[in-house]
Inverse folding.
């Protein structure tokens, strides 16, 4: 499977715990995006990387959230001191550049439940 | 008011019907308009991509953009049960992708 891969698919955690998600983009894609999607809503942009550089962060990305993309390959999204409001689907997408007709391919997401 | 408004449905149609899905938006800076399909427990997949106003056709799918009315549509002809999914409109002021704003999605059910 050469698509965007996310791990784990599901995560249940207790409030206050830290969690980390991983995204493996399509191998030649230089751009990587993280989105959050809650039930009945569309994806909301969190942050994006071009190669290893984090170029944009949404105001949704509080201080408890941190994302990395070492060496411009896979990326991790960590949430510290999780809150019930963090329960959502976390989607990763990747693309080759950002020009017209550039398609971003989404992974299947990591569904986080904070209890 | 949200930047992008989309009726969440659900919309239920018989197989073979023409489906019309719509979004309105408020930001006149949006230049790129997209429709994504999302099956249950899957990530969104891009269906159609349109720049500025006009129509674009791809098989059974037609996307329309009316920038003067800030209104976009997706038409599905000869709908099939396999078209049952959530359809998300999305739009962006640039090609960077990271400023893309998604609608809430419309759930579509096509009955055999």
């Amino acid at each position: 499977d050469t698509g965007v891969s996310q791990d784990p698919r599901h995560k249940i955690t207790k409030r206050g715990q830290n969690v980390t998600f991983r995204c493996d983009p399509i191998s030649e894609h230089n751009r990587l995006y993280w989105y959050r999607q809650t039930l009945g809503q569309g994806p909301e942009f969190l942050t994006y990387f071009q190669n290893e550089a984090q170029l944009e962060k949404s105001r949704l990305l509080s201080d408890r959230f941190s994302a990395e993309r070492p060496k411009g390959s896979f990326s991790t999204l960590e949430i510290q001191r999780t809150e019930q409001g963090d329960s959502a689907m976390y989607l990763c997408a990747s693309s080759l550049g950002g020009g017209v007709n550039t398609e971003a391919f989404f992974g299947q997401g990591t569904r986080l439940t904070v209890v | 008011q949200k930047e992008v408004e989309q009726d969440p449905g659900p919309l239920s149609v018989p197989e073979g019907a023409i489906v019309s899905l719509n979004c309105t938006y408020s930001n006149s800076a949006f230049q790129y308009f997209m429709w994504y399909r999302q099956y249950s427990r899957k990530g969104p997949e891009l269906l159609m991509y349109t720049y500025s106003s006009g129509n674009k056709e791809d098989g059974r799918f037609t996307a329309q953009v009316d920038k003067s009315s800030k209104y976009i549509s997706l038409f599905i002809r000869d709908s099939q049960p396999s078209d049952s999914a959530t359809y998300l409109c999305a739009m962006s002021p640039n090609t960077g992708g990271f400023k893309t704003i998604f609608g809430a999605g419309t759930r579509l059910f096509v009955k055999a």
The CA atoms of residues 24 and 73 of chain A lie 7 Å apart. The longest strand of chain A covers residues 88-95. The mean pLDDT of chain A is 92.
